[in-house]
Amino acid sequence: MSDALSQEIAGRFNAFAAPYLAAPGDSFAYTIKVEHTMRVLALADTISREERLPAPLPQACRVAALLHDVGRFPQYEMFRTFRDAQSANHAALSVRHTLRARLLDGAPQVIRRLAIGAVYLHNKRTLPPLRNRDLGIVARVVRDSDKLDIYKIMLDHFSQQASEHPELTLDVRDEPDAYSQGILDAVLNHRPGDYRDIIYINDFKLMIIGWVYDLNFRASFRLLQKYGYLETLFASLPQDEQIRSLDGQIHAALAARLNHA
Ligand SMILES: [Fe+2]
Measuring CA to CA, how many Å separate 60 from each of 109, 132, 224, 246? Predict the structure, then answer.
C-alpha cells in the first residue's frame, strides 16, 4: 500500500541519496542504505497492515521508515564509517538532514511530529516512556522493521566467506567455537546486548537472537518465523548445552508471542 505523500517523500529521499550514490568509489556504501530503507519501508507497511493500525499511523510509519536512515549518508561521507560510537548518532543526523533538506515539507503537522519522533528514537537501545501513545506505536513499527532487515543483512553477511568491504562489517573475531559468557547471560536474562561488549562473531549472533525480546508486534514475530532467521542463527552457533538451552527458551518465547500477542 502507498499514498501520495509517501510517494512524494520517497521521491525526495531518492533525490537526497542521488549525489551520494554518484560519489566515485563509494556508491556501494550508499546503495546498501537505499536498499535497506526500501526493505524497511515494505516491512513497516506489512506490520501496520497486519496490526490494523488506524489512520494516520500507517502513513506516519511509511514516512518514518523512509527517513530513518537519512543520516547514514552524511555520516559515511564525513566519517567513512557507519559506527555511531566512532562518529555521530545517525538518528540525530537523520532528523537534522531531514529538516535541512526539507524532506517533510507539505506533510501534515501530525505526520511530521510522529515521523521525526520515530526517526530520532529508532536506534535507542530501549525506548524511553512516551506520553504520546501514537508516537510509541510508530517508533515500535520502525524499530521492529529495522531489526527484521538487520537480521537479513547479517545472515547474508555471515554466509559470505570474506567481505569485499571490511570497513562496512563488524570488527569481530571469527572463531567458530567461541562466544562470550557475558553476552549469553545478557540474552538469557532478557537484557539488551551492547555492541561494545562484542568480541566474537558468535557474540553478535547471540545479541541479535536476543532481539526476540525487543520485538513489539505479533506481525514482527510472524515475519521473523517466516524467514527462519532464528533457525539459521542457531544452526551456525556451537552446539553446546548452553546454546541448546537458549534455543529452547527463545523458541518458547517466539511461540508464546505468536499465540498470544
Ligand atoms: Fe538506523
Answer: 11, 14, 23, 36
End-to-end CA distance of the chain: 24
Q: How far is the CA of 246 from the centre of ligand 1 (A)?
A: 28
Q: How far is 122 from 113, CA to CA, in rounded Å?
A: 14
Q: What share of the chain is helix, strand, coil (3-state, %, to 5)?
A: 70, 0, 30
Rg (CA), the chain: 18
Q: How confident is the model at residue 169 (pLDDT cuts 50, 70, 90)?
A: low
Single pTM value for the model: 0.93
Backbone angles phi, psi at 26, to 5 degrees: -110, 0
Q: From ligand 1's centre to the CA of 23, what distance in Å? A: 21
Domain boundaries, the chain: 4-146, 170-260
17 CA to centre of ligand 1 in angstroms: 15
Q: Which triple of cell numbers denotes residue 77? A: 561521507
Contact 190, 213 (CB under 8 A): yes
Quote the Cα angle for 249-253-257, to 5°.
170
pLDDT digits (tens, 9 = 90+) for 114-146: 999 999 999 998 999 999 999 999 999 999 999
CA–centroid distance, 9 to ligand 1, in Å, is 18
Pick the CATH number of 4-146 from 2.60.120.10, 1.10.3210.10, 1.20.1420.30, 3.30.70.20: 1.10.3210.10
Structural element, H or E, at residue 247: helix 241-260
